[in-house]
Amino acid sequence: MLIPTSSTENPICDVEIATPADIDIAVKAARAAFNNPSWRDLIPEDRAKLLHKLADLVEENLEELFTLQAWDVGKPFPSSMEGEGAHMLGTLRYFAGWADKLHGRTIPVSKDKFGYTIKQPVGVCAGISPWNYPLTNSSWKLGPALTTGNCIILKPSEHSPLAALYLAKLCKEAGYPPGVVQVVNGYGNKTGEALTTHIDIDKVAFTGSTNTGRRIIQAAAVNMKKTSIEAGGKSAFIVFEDADLEQAAKWAIAGGLGNSGQICSANSRILVQADVEEKFLKIFTEMANASKIGQPFDRDTTQGPQASKMQYDKILGYIHGAKEDGAKLITGGNPFQNPSGKGYFIQPTIFSGVTRDMKIFQEEVFGPILTVSTFKTEEEAVALANDSTYGLAAMVFTENLKKAHNTAAKLQTGMVWINESNNTDYKLPFGGFKQSGLGRDLGEDALAEYVEEKVIHVNLGMQL
Question: Is the pTM of this model over 0.85?
Fold first, then answer.
């Protein structure tokens, strides 16, 4: 599998594709490791030590890891290493802290009987991570899986295989027994399918598109695998007339154009109260035009390339379709030509006059395209925001906290940010409603995705 850079289109290296036979070998190795006393009988404190050791090694190798990620998908290196690196380290250490806190319950039943519960690992897990946040998302899967005593086979996207391979090396150095953590590479429709349909995989954790998420849920039926699916989004960003418009615009840029717009919870639908649309658009457009598009290793780059030629072509198709549907192009709308003439760069693009029946309003683009629509009342804003098959996130900007909380409660999304956007914290659950997925990543809630709760009944002398 030839891996090209998205910023220059030049090949980096070849990566071996795991065949179904390779997947079978990996699953058997994971099952053997899960049943081996060297891992099965490890006390929680020692699982915590291993995960802390992995975090220490990640910290020591941050530059190498994020260099590989920048080569893979074109992420601006300095900002991603500083921001995502801190989040990744925090995630691993946070979950390490949970290892000895997975408590069961004691439940009194009668004077002759009581019951108690224990939490046990699911078994062999498959973790399928996306190309937009390869390293961060890997930590979202490794952290809860390993702290609860599971074995995990990680399959990164075919567009971002390199950093995960280096991460596997660090897992070995940390001292994880053979088979506990493995990385396999390949295409989703072959390697990924072999992994998700394997009869001896107990749980699949997936982050990616809604269509692929549906297929994984269907595949899980073969042996009723546990699944946690974090899929697509089309997040609404509501700006009320009393909002601090400059702050709203700054957060809209960060949460919509950050990572070249390749964020599942990106605030791609901007809903502005009609009386302040003109003023907001002026501020918003100036900030979008100030974006520094460039090579991943340039210090002043704020926007790198799209991750692949496929994604680049898809985004340009949406821009063309929005123009045909009658949306008004405010800025951008074209490929960005860097000095080399290569790479998958697209200008930050803003459309106004976008209506709820347009594809650009309803479908996830996953690129640097933001749409602006207007509303008059709070009820209309909520109705527009909820007019989506997705329900991952939403953002509310207002100086009126009563209005903010009332609006947040009415939004059909798993997450709402008030006066900020996409400021994710590993201590809080991450996930959505509707077709944005099942289950949660991060926070204490994520642990439930990787354990089974067993009830034990104790007879204290009751005679039959």
Answer: yes
